[in-house]
Amino acid sequence: QSSVLHKFKGILFSTMSSEELLNSLDSFDAREDDVFLVSYPKSGTHWIAEVIENIPNARITLTPPIELGDISKLEELKTYSERRVIPTHLSYDMLPMNIKQKQCKIIYIIRNPKDTAVSLFHYYRDNPNLPSIETWHEFLELFLRGDVVYGSWFDHILSWEEHKNAKNILIIFYEEMKKDPSKNIKKITTFLGLNVSDSEINKIAWKTSFSEMKNNTAEENCDPNHTICALTSNRKLVFRKGAVGDWINYFTSKQKRVFDELFTEKMKHSELAGHFRDYS
Ligand code: A3P
To answer: Measured on CA atoms in the order 225, 228, 229, 230, is the torsion positive or negative?
Structure first.
């Protein structure tokens, strides 16, 4: 493809994730109280991160993504003294072994694949750390083949399928978060074992609304240490539309048919994907 991406174990990664680091992930030293914030790109990672950062007295530090950088990342992660919240776009299979052995808490955020594809298309266009792409049609073909950064959306979801009921894993759906932010924020705080009053929950919901986050980002200078997605530290690239169902403005009826056929075939046994039948 291009010099901004490279393949590791058959999956495309940004060259900002060094091969050496990816190869060494299994030597990551997880702590029992670590929390992982996991997602396929463009599923709402920054949103959940903002929610977590706004929980009062949570005593946590959001770290940069575990797969971003070179081998020194594993040392750097040791320097945090507070409870760590570590974002990543890795699939279940690629997560460091240690995290699974210690049964660290994991929040996995999922978004319906058509909106995710449209959002990732824009990221490809706007983000200098991703290859340039000419047309939506061209991008959609890559997305359906899994020839995009972090691989196939379908395989990513499937890698989590058999772990969805584990008690250390909380699955959050972007669309449900949109419909009822307070309810889902409550799920997150309860899962993290934090006691937060309803009025504080509502305050977090307000502060983490799309318009609030977009406006605050416009005023902020980008702090490279506050990087949530391994594909950029520039938050201005993240807040585009923040809507459910924007895919309708991109998919032709033929593209929708092809997409739905692949979805049905690949995801027929997936309960997680079952949540998205309403969004097609
Ligand atoms: P769009 O491109 O559809 O607007 P990630 O954080 O995983 O990179 O995901 C980015 C997507 O989440 C973008 O989608 C972005 O606008 C959306 N998003 C970010 N913050 C949001 C919020 N507070 N509410 C709703 N959507 C949000």
So the answer is: positive
